[in-house]
Design a protein that fits this description.
The complex is a heterodimer of chains A (206) and B (181). Chain A has 7 helices and 5 strands, in the order ααααββαββαβα. Chain A is α+β, with helices and mostly antiparallel strands and 206 residues long. Chain A folds into 2 domains: 15-93, no CATH class; 96-205, Translation Initiation Factor Eif1 (2-Layer Sandwich), CATH 3.30.780. In chain A, strands 3-4-2-1-5 form a 5-stranded mixed β-sheet. In chain A, α1 (24-34) packs across α2. Chain A is elongated. Chain B is α+β, with helices and mostly antiparallel strands and 181 residues long. Chain B folds into 2 domains: 7-84, Sulfate adenylyltransferase, CATH 3.10.400; 87-170, Sulfate adenylyltransferase, CATH 3.10.400.20. Helices cover 24% and strands 28% of the residues of chain B. In chain B, the strands form 2 sheets. Chain B has a 5-stranded antiparallel β-sheet. In chain B, a hairpin with a 4-residue loop joins β4 and β5 (76-78). The chains are: A alpha+beta (206), B alpha+beta (181). Chain A binds chain B through residues 1-5, 11-14, 16-17, 20-21, 60-63, 67-68, 71, 74-75, 78, 126, and chain B through 37-38, 41-42, 81, 84-87, 96-98, 100-101, 104, 116-118, 137-142, 144, 171-172, 176-177, 181. Chain A: It is found in: Cytoplasm. Chain A: One of its GO terms (molecular function) is mRNA binding. Chain A: Keywords: Cytoplasm, Ribonucleoprotein, Ribosomal protein. Chain A: Interacts with the 40S ribosomal subunit.
Chain lengths: 206, 181
């Protein structure tokens, strides 16, 4: 009785609307992998029947050849635009970096602050919640000096966080993203650690 | 209506009592009588409807994290995913192929797109002004938008100019991509 509609895994539309999403190429790949039947129905055997297909399309469309052509052109342009945008975004993602910082609070207490995650479409609040339960500690999202969101974890969990974020990014297919670790407490670090140098880190520097 | 919509617009979430759930369902059926035979399949008795109150007095009703219908004033409007499951039950109009692109980017639907060869409007008496319609497209099976008639379908036919249907919800808008977690 009820209809089951397949939704494209790329653009989330029903596959018949993929051509309007601007991601047609990837949609096609997805559909051919996931639902060959529907793929054949929608796109036919394009390689040897492209011409026939085009004629078919024109025949079944009511808006006339000229407008159909224009539409096709517009769609192509949209697609190119979308692709460019995606490329740009990917480049941006690859070039940006995640900063994990360990700061000292009082005596032997530390917090770890992570910033630069928002580029990767990660839900900060949710991640904060995960960290809180993973490390059994307080964790929240707050604004840092540059008015950007950062996750603040209470406790000295620098290494664990680093590992976790590595695996998180890997899952997203972004293995080459740089992780910058700033640790104001290590002795070997160069003295260029600006912000935290005035904190009371005398203990370790002795 | 959903041009801009995000999680920040959510004010509260609450579970709907089963008695209210029942009235909701009967209200849906009274609005769309053909839903009667499948309503228990669409929304099983045991399912838990959740009410999400949002900015601008918009209320979303979700089941299992998926928006099934929403409400701005009195009338319940089904979401597209809900429509796709049983499209026969709703008043439907059709736009031609040239209009799809604009509809998917959220434009109101212009009369010529409905009256041209590819478009389809019901025969007289048609639908009243201000009623909600499902918008289908030429050569496509599934609905691509939900709109509110800005003039009656007969008027659309005779005037054939300007905005005909106000856009409420379309494929790819923030409500379509809406995800509870």
């Amino acid at each position: 009785m009820l209809q089951e509609v397949v939704y494209c895994g790329i653009c989330s539309y029903p596959p018949e609307y993929c051509e309007f999403s601007g991601k047609l190429k990837r949609c096609k790949v997805w559909l051919s992998e996931n639902d060959t039947e529907l793929y054949a129905k929608l796109y036919g055997n394009e390689i040897d029947e492209e011409v026939a297909n085009a004629a078919n399309k024109l025949g079944s469309s009511s808006i006339g050849e000229a407008r159909e052509e224009k539409l096709e052109k517009d769609l192509l342009r949209l697609q190119a635009k979308q692709e460019n945008r995606e490329q740009r975004e990917l480049a941006k993602k690859l070039s940006s970096k995640v900063v994990i910082k360990r700061e000292a609070r009082t005596k032997r207490k530390f917090i770890v602050a992570i910033s630069g995650l928002e580029v990767f479409e990660i839900d900060m609040k949710k991640l904060a919640k995960t960290f809180a339960s993973k490390f059994a500690t307080g964790c929240s999202v707050s604004k840092n000096a540059e008015k950007k969101d950062e996750i603040v974890i209470q406790g000295d969990v620098l290494e664990e966080v680093e590992k976790y974020i590595h695996s998180l990014l890997e899952e997203k297919g972004l293995k080459n993203v740089k992780l910058e670790i700033i640790d104001s407490q290590k002795k070997k670090k160069k003295p260029t650690d600006e912000a935290n140098s005035n904190n009371n880190n005398n203990n370790n520097n002795k | 209506m959903f041009k801009k919509f995000s999680k920040e617009d959510i004010h509260s979430r609450s579970k709907v009592k089963s008695s209210i759930q029942r009235t909701l369902k009967s209200k849906l059926v009274s609005q769309y009588p053909q839903l009667e035979e499948v309503i228990d399949e669409l929304i099983p008795k045991k399912s838990q409807i959740e009410l999400i109150k949002c900015e601008d007095k918009i209320q979303l009703y979700t089941v299992d994290g998926e928006v099934y219908f929403f409400q701005k004033f009195d009338e319940l409007i089904p979401s597209l995913k809900f429509v796709h499951k049983f499209p026969q039950a709703y008043p439907t109009i059709q736009v031609d192929r040239g209009a799809i692109k604009f509809v998917l980017s959220g434009a109101n639907i212009m009369c010529p797109g409905l009256t041209s060869v590819g478009g389809k409007l019901p025969d007289a008496p048609g639908f009243e002004k201000d009623s909600f319609v499902i918008i289908n497209a030429e050569n496509k099976e599934n609905a691509l938008a939900i709109g509110k008639l800005m003039m009656s379908t007969e008027e659309i036919k005779s005037i054939n100019k300007g905005h005909g249907v106000e856009m409420i919800h379309h494929l790819g808008d923030p409500l379509w991509d809406f995800n509870l977690d």
